[in-house]
Amino acid sequence: MDTEDADDFREFVRSRFEQLRSLAFVTCGDWQTAEDATAATLAKLYRRWKKVTTPDAYARTMVVRAAISEKRKPWRRERSFGSEMPDAALPDHADVIDEQMRLHHALSKVPTRQRAVLVLRFLEGLSVE
Known about the structure:
Layout: H1 3-28, H2 31-47, H3 55-72, H4 94-108, H5 112-123
Keywords: DNA-binding, Sigma factor, Transcription, Transcription regulation
Protein name: Putative RNA polymerase ECF-subfamily sigma factor
Family: Belongs to the sigma-70 factor family. ECF subfamily.
């Protein structure tokens, strides 16, 4: 990859990372799995950067597939949570958090592939065509 392509890729990652990670989280319901899916997607995209004509569409498709695939891995079935609380206090956005929790709870009841369709259609705004 030449310098110009590498710069373009870095700019793409800077501008899209949070969006891709959020999409992965809504698809799989776990931040660590979402991080792994996003990293795997960006690694694949980096290798194919010159060949990909629509990086946004490619990345969205790959991050959803990666999130579904990561969720299926056997070591993902066990969860351990630390007992320590974060040091920084977050501002109170109870109404937003409540709505996000209800959405997350509702999506967690839907099968993974159907959840991906709902996320892409309604949260990402993709058309049905």
